[in-house]
Amino acid sequence: MAEQIFFFIFAVLAVGSAIAVVSFKNPVYSVLSLMVCFLQMAALFVMLRSPFLAVVQVFVYVGAVLVLFLFVIMMLDIRKARMDQFITGGNFWAIGLLGILIIEMILIISKSRLTSITVSSELRLDGGVREIGEALFTKYILPFEIVSFILLVALMGAIVLGRKELR
Amino acid sequence: MVPLSWYIILSSILFIIGAAGVLLRRNILVVLMSIELILNSVNINLVAFSYFHQDLKGQIFSIFVITIAAAEVAVALGILIALVRNKSAINVDEIQTMKG
Predict the structure, then answer these.
(1) How many domains does chain A have?
(2) ipTM above 0.85, yes or no
(3) Would you say B26 and B93 are in contact if contact means Cβ atoms under 8 Å apart?
(4) What is the spatial distance between Cα B8 and Cα B14, in angstroms, rounded to a whole number?
(5) CB-based contact (8 Å) between A13 and chain B?
(6) Per the CB < 8 Å rule, is B44 touching A41?
(7) Do A161 and B88 touch (CB under 8 A)?
(8) Domain end position, chosen among A48, A65, A80
(9) Residue B12: its chain A contacts at CB < 8 A?
(10) Domains, in order of start, for chain B
(11) pLDDT per residue over B25-79, tens digit each?
């Protein structure tokens, strides 16, 4: 019961801050409410018994990605970055697509048999560093190496794109 | 005990909010943040299924999703800075060089 109450608190905060991300005019406020949203998601990961993933979420997203966003907003001229809100006209197609998406989600969730899935009796996983490390370095070693290569390429790409002289 | 359907409903609500941000906002920074929101809602899905099936694959997959999202943000913000320096365009519909 207490778990459901906590889930409710985290979910309401996450949805509220997500709406704030989309609807704030100032990008700085958007970044800060995105930070709130990501912290709620980390709390949900803890509730799902995956503490390592929660820590990674806080480190990578709140610590790296959002700080990067803040630095870029500071580097750009904020007066030049005009803070317009929603498009006033001509977004008929976007709203239509969103309506189709919402109807589709409602249909899929209501027709599915999700309520029959419960946690199997014995809890085999604890989501700790040891389990995830063993899995990453034995069974999933090839995707791990590919991801490290992708990170290297992204690093080089960011450096090349951020240089002063491209010619 | 929180049922699985609650997590799925929460992640689909967050996905819809992120999609609304991508489709309706014009500021590139907010569009990028909405993409991050979408990726995170998918992560909630993966971790919830990983817990309810007691299978580590979901957590491993979401670690990879987080890593790729970090790489994507680095490259996207690099492109954004180059774009602002060269064209001083911050809105999505001002960038029409490729007639997209």
Answers:
(1) 2
(2) yes
(3) yes
(4) 10
(5) no
(6) yes
(7) no
(8) A80
(9) 105, 109
(10) 4-94 (1.10.287.3510)
(11) 878 888 899 999 999 999 999 999 988 888 888 899 999 999 999 999 999 998 8
